[in-house]
Design brief:
alpha/beta; 2 domains; ten-stranded parallel sheet; 31 strands; about 15% helix; glycoprotein; BURP_dom
Length: about 600
């Protein structure tokens, strides 16, 4: 009887499954005897590969702990699913067994669930919520918390208080303090009449999120609306707020803050009070104190009538290196009283662009634009129109910015006996494992398997792929790796067979004052640094750059009764001539590209390879 390729694959799959189930489960231990490891397991294969690359060096336990927990039979089974195109049917079990970061919470607990009348809803977590209090009369509504403090959340809230009349609404919190979630809020108080609406917090103190809020108070009449906070203190996010008070009549709108004090954010606010009538609008803050952001505000009070409007801040209060684009303010308005207080008060180099203010406005307008602050990099204010105007200042300036203490420092700061501040080096990413090499070949980053099962993760996945595929900087050799074998091969190519991988031992001293006790190293050597990237399986961005010094630094926490000691890894870049002038290091330390060396810690779970 002849066997096809699929028959042979199935045969070997069953063979592995029945005869190789006793596999080493002690991945955390570096002292576990190799004789106890199944020779066909992924870990045994990894150890053999390591021995060929580094015959005189034992693979360290902290690196081995990141290897795949899958055994030989599991690898064979999941490989078969991939070959047959059937992995999607076993996706949850695959993610769990392989210790991946996957979100398969798309089966909503509250699918098509409706709440009516005078309803109080206190806590709801981590699912899809379709409708809350739709088409109600004279109701009192209170929704206190939605997915607060959740990790790995996929949240979707479709409707709240839609088409209501004469009601008082209060929504206290949505997706606050969540990590690595995709959050979407579609409608709040749309098509409502005579209601007082209060939305207090959306996505505050969240990490690695994609936030999208589509409509608030659109097509509403005679209401008092207050939106207090949207994505403040968030890290590495893409924010999208599509409409607020659009086509509203005679309402008092107050939007207090949007994405202030956020890091590495792409912010997009599309419409605020478009075609509104008789509105009193107050927008207090947008992207203030944001770091490395692209801020885009497309329209504020377009074609509005009889409004008293005040926009207090955009991209200001010490935003660092933002690209700010404000497209239109008060365009085509009738008899507005408009006050725009602050735009682009950046503390670092930025690109600021304000396209239109008060253009085509009709009637006797009272318009005041207080400050427009760019810097020496790029500033543009294209059109400012009105009959009665007051424009207080257009400034082109720059200043230094406050960067987290201890994030960057000079070589002289790591001398014995010196007290320095250690930054927050704690790993904020979810725990994941590498893929075994056999599966990594079948699941490249662009395979599309994860995005098809987790569409909410598309933005994060696309960003990591882009970062991995972009060309390296001048003198940089880079590679993204999804297996320990790939990482060790890259280190061997860059450094040779003497390469040794190191990491900071713990998070002791993180965010505290520490005293330098011992310093090892200091030679200018070839160093490979590997930093985690966000992806369902463990991916590291590894790169080698010229002229780098490596150190191991023992520190003791200052002011503690019990001695608390850590041994951290420090990398000092001797040549910074190719760095951007707007780099945070120069904001913190002064000087500029090529004028000083810059040192930084290797954070928790990041890695550095040295030739010693």
């Amino acid at each position: 009887m002849s066997f096809t390729r699929n028959n042979l694959f199935t045969f070997f799959t069953l063979f592995f499954f029945f005869f190789f189930v006793n596999v080493d489960h002690s991945l955390q231990s570096n002292t576990f005897s190799i004789s106890n490891i199944n020779p066909l397991s992924p870990q045994a294969s990894l150890r053999r590969h390591w021995s060929r690359l580094f015959p005189s060096i034992t693979i360290p336990g902290f690196l081995l702990s990141k290897s795949s927990p899958l055994n030989a039979s599991q690898v064979a089974v999941f490989s078969n699913y991939l070959h047959s195109g059937n992995l999607h049917s076993h996706f949850p079990s695959f993610c769990s067994a392989a210790n991946l970061f996957c979100d398969f919470s798309n089966s909503p607990l509250f699918n098509h669930h409706h709440l009516h009348a005078n309803t109080e809803f206190k806590n709801y977590k981590n699912m899809e919520f379709k409708k809350y209090q739709k088409e109600c009369l004279l109701s009192g509504q209170s929704f206190k918390n939605y997915s607060s403090g959740e990790n790995v959340g996929h949240d979707f809230f479709s409707n709240y208080g839609q088409e209501n009349t004469g009601s008082r609404e209060e929504f206290t919190g949505y997706a606050g303090k969540t990590n690595v979630g995709g959050s979407g809020f579609t409608n709040y108080a749309t098509d409502s009449n005579g209601e007082a609406s209060d939305f207090k917090l959306y996505g505050g103190q969240s990490n690695l999120q994609g936030h999208q809020f589509k409509n608030y108070g659109s097509d509403s009449s005679a209401g008092v609306q207050s939106f207090t906070s949207y994505s403040e203190d968030s890290n590495v996010v893409k924010h999208g707020f599509k409409a607020y008070g659009s086509k509203a009549n005679a309402i008092l709108n107050q939007f207090s803050s949007y994405s202030t004090q956020s890091n590495m954010a792409k912010n997009e606010f599309k419409l605020y009070n478009e075609a509104g009538n008789g509105a009193i609008d107050l927008f207090k803050g947008y992207a203030g104190a944001t770091n490395v952001g692209k801020n885009e505000f497309q329209a504020y009070d377009v074609v509005a009538n009889g409004g008293v409007e005040q926009f207090m801040g955009y991209g200001g209060d010490g935003a660092n290196v933002p690209k700010n684009v404000f497209k239109s303010y008060g365009k085509g308005t009738n008899t507005p009283v408009e006050i725009f207080t602050n735009y682009g008060n950046s503390s670092g180099p930025s690109t600021t662009k304000f396209v239109e203010y008060g253009k085509d406005a009709i009637g006797v307008a009272s318009t005041k634009f207080s400050t427009y602050l760019g810097n020496e990099t790029s500033s543009s204010f294209k059109d400012y129109f009105n009959s009665v105007t007051s424009f207080n200042g257009y400034n082109n300036t720059s200043s230094t910015s406050s960067v987290e203490p201890g994030k960057f420092f000079r070589r002289r700061d790591i001398t014995e006996g010196k007290v320095i501040v250690m930054p927050d080096i704690r790993d904020k990413m979810p725990k994941r494992s590498f893929l075994p090499r056999a599966l990594a070949k079948l699941l490249p980053m662009r395979s599309g398997v994860f995005m098809s099962k987790m569409p909410e993760a598309k933005t994060v996945i696309d960003r990591t792929i882009w970062e991995c595929e972009r060309a390296g900087a001048k003198g940089e050799t880079k590679r993204c790796v999804s297996t320990i074998e790939e990482m060790s091969e890259f280190a061997s190519e860059m450094i040779g067979k003497r390469a040794r991988v190191r990491t900071t031992e713990s998070t002791v001293g993180s965010g505290m004052e520490v005293e330098v006790r011992k310093v090892k190293g200091g030679e200018e050597v070839k160093v490979v640094s590997c930093h985690q990237s966000m992806f369902p399986y463990l991916v590291y961005y590894c790169h080698a750059v010229p002229r780098v010094e490596g150190y191991e630094v023992e520190v003791k926490v200052v002011g503690m009764k019990e001695e608390m000691v850590n041994v951290g890894v420090v990398v000092c870049h001797v040549d910074t001539s190719e760095w951007s002038e707007g780099h945070e290091a120069f904001m913190a330390l002064g000087f500029g590209p090529g004028k000083i060396e810059v040192c930084h810690w290797i954070y928790e779970n990041d890695l550095a390879w040295f030739p010693w």
